[in-house]
Q: What sequence folds into this?
């Protein structure tokens, strides 16, 4: 299916890629000239305008899809991935505005580009017009899951930067462009906040999914349902991030080990996309996961 | 006139030889005194810990000026020529000017971008001026050099962010903590180094400072200065570190006081909260194995010094911009200097034409006696204007030829001297008076 949304999303993809490159370039150029003691990067030139324009273009693309097809964007794999990339870009832009974590954006924005690119590759697939997809609650379910995934990606970016910064500090290396990585404390804070918002959204998304699954397939036993690899991983993800939050809030843990949880978390979230699922009717139809 | 530089610098001369040529301010007075009567019109001595250089301006040949200055250096400092001759740097005209510009721009310094050199250059000029050794040329040269140094400081980042171990400690802490106002410092050992490092951190906003020292009163004194509190040394080692984010260790203990063993339980209590330890004591206060502990970042003086060195490398990129400025200023000075080379010729030419004018006015004076004073004045003015008009074009050409690259393969200044018989060596020089006399004689006859 070809509509104005495809070229618009291609434009958004180019804008995101340019923004990622500008963030990276800003990181390098700024490092050389930046004042020694200011670890916060100055505005890296074009990056932010490019990112915000990309976000705006994606809004237009999604709107064009809805007007053209009279369907939710989640009715097709393309639309779902496009919305995921959009939320991810939005989360990164918000984090950058608040914390000036250019380095994280330089690392995490390519993930959004990759997701959008993947979606565009599947743009020719026919959207699913099942009744279920017309339900507002299912849209909320998918939106919650996608938002949480975007936030987990942000936390993942922070964790990667944290581990890199940690390693550099341990090795006492002062390579010019790496000296502009954000401080460990900032990365830790942003990652924590991303999980603190992402985890409840994941829980809500999963809760809504359970409700609809019980309605849609009442014959499934809880055991059958829980041992569906897709559902199993989704709950493992909930547990993993729950562990992270508990470690932070209940035990006051900080430091490098928690970052490994965040890295593992996103890998697990990505596994959601590739594992087969047996009972997950909605995903099979919309193409959010590979066909079982 | 030749402009030259001779000297020994840290680039070519070992420190044990360099220090034998070092001149304190009192010695400089004697040095300038000794330079009197050597045939050197202008001289400025630049003596710093990294260099001893003489900038000279003289009406001598290059070789004889070099010989004069080398002999001076040898005799004044009592060092045989053979000992330092191979280390000497000798530069003439453009090279000498360019070198001083690089020195003032701190491009020739041991620490790139250091600001002290500008003050030293200024002081050298002042001393030479006070003793009457800096004339128009060297004063102009040094002022241009000072201008170069200032431009480099303001227009490039070469001198920006000059770095010390304290700065490096702050930068490293800044890579761990984002808000210094919430960071807690524990100072072990109330020494000067720890005080300086802590001050850097306090300036960055650290509010919570605890000082621990074997002598409790010294800890109290330093704590008051830093706006913090004091703690007993043993309490700090056992408990204080659990609360601190940054530990500055600078005791005079002969062995390590913080080991992996005693830090491990503390780190367990900290639950992964990063701990930045700055060990600036020699011998070291902290066992290097401590760095292997998770979430502990240990930096000693050498590590911080490495940061300082890497920062200097980073700023090397700014050196290109500074080099360009130095080149621009070199060209500006050379343009002025070359134009100045033609000044004696121009003066001689003007004087020669004035002599002719005055001679003819003197000769024709009696025949103009019947004229009114006003008419005589008019004729004198006319004669002056004619001479000025005759000289105007050659003078402009001479100046232009001297200030830039010569457009013809001969020196116009030399040609002028030769053509007008102003050159003492000219074949016609001796004939001119006769020729002039003949001319005058003819004029007299006609008069």
A:
């Amino acid at each position: 299916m070809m509509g104005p949304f495809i070229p618009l999303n291609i434009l958004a993809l180019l804008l995101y890629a340019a923004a990622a490159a500008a963030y990276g370039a800003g990181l390098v150029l700024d490092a050389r000239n930046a004042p020694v003691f200011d670890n916060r990067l100055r505005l890296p030139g074009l990056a932010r305008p490019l990112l915000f324009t990309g976000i705006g273009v994606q809004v237009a693309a999604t709107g064009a899809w809805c007007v053209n097809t009279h369907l939710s964007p989640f009715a097709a794999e393309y639309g779902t991935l496009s919305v995921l990339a959009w939320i991810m870009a939005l989360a990164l832009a918000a984090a950058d505005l608040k914390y000036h974590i250019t380095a994280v954006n330089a690392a995490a924005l390519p993930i959004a580009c990759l997701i959008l690119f993947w979606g565009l590759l599947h743009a020719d697939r026919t959207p699913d017009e099942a009744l279920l997809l017309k339900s507002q609650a299912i849209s909320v379910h998918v939106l919650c899951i996608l938002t949480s995934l975007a936030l987990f990606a942000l936390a993942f970016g922070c964790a990667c930067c944290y581990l890199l910064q940690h390693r550099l500090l341990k090795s006492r290396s002062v390579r010019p462009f790496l000296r502009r990585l954000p401080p460990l404390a900032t990365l830790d804070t942003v990652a924590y906040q991303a999980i603190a918002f992402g985890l409840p959204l994941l829980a809500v998304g999963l809760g809504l999914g359970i409700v609809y699954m019980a309605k849609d397939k009442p014959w499934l036993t809880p055991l059958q349902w829980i041992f569906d690899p897709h559902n199993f991983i989704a709950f493992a993800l909930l547990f993993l991030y729950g562990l992270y939050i508990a470690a932070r809030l209940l035990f006051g843990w900080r430091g490098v080990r928690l970052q490994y949880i965040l890295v593992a978390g996103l890998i697990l979230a990505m596994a959601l996309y590739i594992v087969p699922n047996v009972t997950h009717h909605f995903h099979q139809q919309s193409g959010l996961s590979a066909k079982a | 006139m030749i402009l030259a530089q001779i000297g020994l610098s840290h680039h070519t001369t070992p420190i044990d030889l360099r220090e034998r040529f070092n001149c304190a301010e009192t010695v400089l007075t004697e040095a300038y005194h000794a330079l009197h009567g050597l045939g050197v019109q202008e001289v400025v001595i630049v003596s710093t810990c990294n260099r001893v250089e003489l900038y000279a301006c003289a009406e001598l040949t290059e070789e004889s000026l070099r010989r004069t200055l080398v002999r001076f250096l040898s005799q004044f400092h009592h060092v045989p020529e053979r000992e330092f001759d191979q280390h000497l740097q000798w530069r003439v005209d453009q090279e000498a000017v360019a070198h001083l510009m690089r020195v003032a721009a701190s491009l020739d310094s041991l620490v790139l971008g250091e600001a002290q050199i500008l003050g030293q250059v200024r002081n050298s000029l002042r001393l030479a001026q006070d003793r009457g050794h800096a004339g128009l040329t060297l004063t102009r040269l040094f002022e241009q050099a000072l201008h170069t140094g200032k431009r480099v400081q303001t227009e490039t980042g070469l001198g920006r962010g000059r770095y010390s171990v304290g700065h490096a400690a702050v930068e490293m802490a800044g890579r761990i903590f984002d808000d210094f106002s919430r960071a807690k410092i524990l100072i072990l050992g109330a020494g000067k180094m720890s005080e300086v490092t802590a001050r850097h951190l306090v300036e960055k906003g650290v509010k919570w400072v605890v000082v621990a020292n074997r002598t409790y009163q010294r800890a109290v004194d330093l704590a008051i200065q830093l706006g913090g509190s004091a703690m007993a040394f043993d309490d700090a080692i056992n408990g204080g570190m659990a609360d601190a984010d940054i530990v500055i260790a600078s005791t005079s203990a002969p062995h390590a006081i913080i080991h992996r063993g005693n830090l491990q339980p503390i780190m367990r209590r900290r639950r992964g909260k990063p701990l930045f330890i700055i060990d600036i004591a020699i011998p070291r206060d902290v066992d290097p194995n401590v760095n292997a502990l998770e979430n502990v970042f240990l930096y000693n003086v050498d590590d911080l010094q490495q940061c300082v060195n890497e920062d200097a490398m980073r700023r090397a990129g700014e050196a290109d911009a500074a080099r360009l400025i130095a080149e621009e200023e070199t060209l500006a000075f050379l343009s002025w200097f070359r134009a100045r080379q033609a000044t004696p010729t121009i003066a001689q030419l003007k004087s020669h034409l004035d002599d002719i004018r005055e001679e003819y006015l003197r000769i024709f004076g009696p025949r103009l006696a019947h004229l009114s004073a006003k008419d005589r004045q008019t004729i004198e003015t006319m004669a002056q204007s004619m001479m000025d008009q005759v000289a105007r074009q050659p003078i402009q050409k001479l100046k232009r030829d001297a200030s830039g690259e010569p457009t013809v393969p001969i020196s116009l200044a030399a040609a002028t001297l030769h053509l007008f018989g102003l050159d003492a060596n000219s074949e016609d020089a001796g004939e001119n008076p006769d020729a002039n006399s003949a001319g005058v004689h003819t004029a007299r006859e006609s008069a």
Remarks:
- The first helix of chain B runs from residue 15 to 18.
